[in-house]
Amino acid sequence: MGIRDQEIDRLVSYIKGLGLKVLFSSKKSDCAAEWSLENTQITIYKPLNTSKIDIVTSLIHEAGHAVHNINEKNRKLDPKYLEALNHVDTAEELGFDSKKIQRKVILDNEIAGSQYWHSIYQQTNMKFPIWKLNAAMEFDLWQYRFFYETGDFPTSKTKKAKLKEINKKHRTKK
Prior knowledge:
By secondary structure, the protein is mostly helical. The chain has helices at residues 3-17, 52-73, 79-94, 100-114, 117-123, 130-150, 156-172, and strands at 21-25, 33-35, 41-45. It has 7 helices and 3 strands, in the order αβββαααααα. The longest helix is centred in the middle third of the chain and has 22 residues, at 52-73. The radius of gyration is 16 Å and the shape is globular.
């Protein structure tokens, strides 16, 4: 078993210790992973081209939401966040722009979950370079800030260019 497989196993055990199930799905999805709002499950979508480091960072991302929910929401659904998600989904289905105030609630929730990434990295004894975690966090938050500002997520071309820029920046930091 390789080191990334061991890291995935440790993260799955960590998440199960939080009282959540972890599911892996080859189903195609617009997102890499999902954390259930009821704080009961994390689903990782892994098409054939998904790297193990992407799976690891997705697990850390979603575990961050779970830990935030446990520590700051006492495992209860946040009605403001649920309303924001429902509003954004409904607006997209109807072809309308979602309200910026609702997008801000979503961005704030993403930022709150990301505050736990480094702690999870340390608690689960991750071995991959920390710059990869920092780059993944910056990229993730950039996407949500982009969504907050514009009402749309960036295009694949824009994401690819930004990811290249962010990885270069973090890879060269000392």
